[in-house]
Design brief:
- By secondary structure, this protein is α/β, with parallel strands linked by helices.
- The protein has two domains: about 180 residues, Glycogen Phosphorylase B (Rossmann fold, 3-Layer(aba) Sandwich); about 180 residues, Glycogen Phosphorylase B (Rossmann fold), CATH 3.40.50.2000.
- Helices cover about 45% and strands about 20% of the residues.
- It contains 14 helices and 13 strands.
- The longest helix is centred in the C-terminal third of the chain and has 25 residues.
Length: about 375
């Protein structure tokens, strides 16, 4: 059984990292062969070559006839039975390759969330795949509501690569540092954080605290203006785009206030690896992975009062004995152990085998 993994869009580091981990673990195993088809000269090609994962780099436009024929030859020469799209950018190309293969392969599509712009792509991408691998049961449910047959939906847990992150570094300065790692856009919930900060600033007896916003986006200027107008700019640091591995270890609490399900899950997994308690909005994509008071804290979506109350509790806890934060961190670490790259690969292999078996049965019934 040979699997071709396709990933061209490297704009989302967390998604790219998941594809790399999957390719690495599949290549290290013995249950099947894998080739990673990715952008020439990109992060995935460099990382894959560094650990001897077979790579087929593609340069320029993937729709060019010569590129298409090169990939058709790759499918045929490797006798690939599974074509796995790990992003949406490769979906149209993979559909073409399946058609040109004469039914000798099946297509698998990874789907992370259904929120924001993602919902627009369901019709174009998911309904054409033979199997859709969803990041959690909640995503399966939402795709089914969008018209994808349940028989094609499979829930898998994204991998958590703890070795990719340094542990939290205690600062010993008596402050509580909250961090939000998400694009500066309305759907990320930064406005709710600023409203909670305004409430927090009126609460007596709190230790010193600040909020660090990591990321860039269209709302940078408006968020900064709001912070100044409401008087919380002295508690705010807007850091722009940063490597989360450098920023998270110097924080105390992760906030994931997303309003539509984008980005929060990745940040929560990173917080678990670093050893930060996570506070998340109660979107289904978050409730599907966070157990309240065990692996994190959940607050109602868009509720600044509830968020401020939780932030105050954690600020006092971090400045005190840290018992609540320690319990949440322990729960997060237990989740990390349940979501290893090895388990990610094993779950994918089960689905690949099912799809490869369907190819064999189809060819046998056709007398091929």
């Amino acid at each position: 059984m040979h699997i071709l993994l396709f990933h061209f869009d490297e704009s989302c580091p967390a998604s790219v990292r998941q594809t790399f981990l999957l390719a690495r673990e599949l290549s290290a195993g013995t249950a099947g062969d894998v080739t990673l088809v990715c952008t020439a000269g990109g992060f995935l090609e460099r990382e894959a070559r560094s650990v001897d994962v077979p790579v087929l780099p593609v340069g320029g436009l993937t729709g060019k006839p010569l590129t298409l024929m090169r990939l058709v030859r790759a499918v045929r020469s490797r006798e690939a039975s599974v074509l796995h799209c790990c992003d949406t950018a490769s979906a149209a190309l993979v559909r073409q390759l399946k058609r040109l293969s004469g039914g000798r392969c099946r297509t698998v599509q990874t789907w992370r969330v259904v929120g924001g712009d993602a919902a627009r792509h369901v019709e174009r991408v998911c309904r054409h795949a033979d199997a859709v691998l969803c990041h959690g049961e909640m995503v399966c449910d939402r795709l089914e509501r969008h018209g994808v047959p349940r028989s094609r939906l499979f829930a898998v847990s994204p991998a958590v690569d703890a070795g990719h992150y340094a542990p939290r570094r205690p600062r010993g300065d008596g402050r509580c540092v909250f961090v939000v790692d998400a694009p500066l856009a309305a759907s990320s919930g930064h406005g709710i954080v600023l409203a909670a900060m305004r409430l927090l600033a009126t609460m007596p007896g709190l230790p010193e605290w600040e909020v660090r916003l990591v990321g860039d986006g269209p709302d940078f200027a408006s968020l900064l203006a709001t912070a100044r107008q409401t008087g919380v700019d002295t508690h705010l640091a807007m850091l722009g785009t940063q490597d989360e591995r450098r920023i998270l270890p110097d924080a105390d609490v992760l906030l994931a206030p997303s309003l539509d399900g984008e980005h929060g899950a990745d940040a929560i997994r990173a917080a678990w690896c670093v050893g930060l308690p996570a506070v998340a909005s109660s979107l289904d994509v978050h409730t599907g992975m966070v157990r309240h008071d065990e692996t994190g804290l959940l607050v109602p979506v868009g509720d600044a009062d509830a968020l401020a109350a939780v932030m105050a509790r954690l600020a006092r806890d971090v400045a005190g004995d840290g018992a609540m934060a320690a319990g949440l961190v322990a729960g997060g670490r237990a989740e990390v152990l349940r979501r290893t790259p090895e388990r990610l690969a094993a779950a994918h292999l089960d689905i690949y085998r099912e799809q490869a078996g369907a190819v064999r049965r189809s060819l046998q019934s056709a007398g091929v």
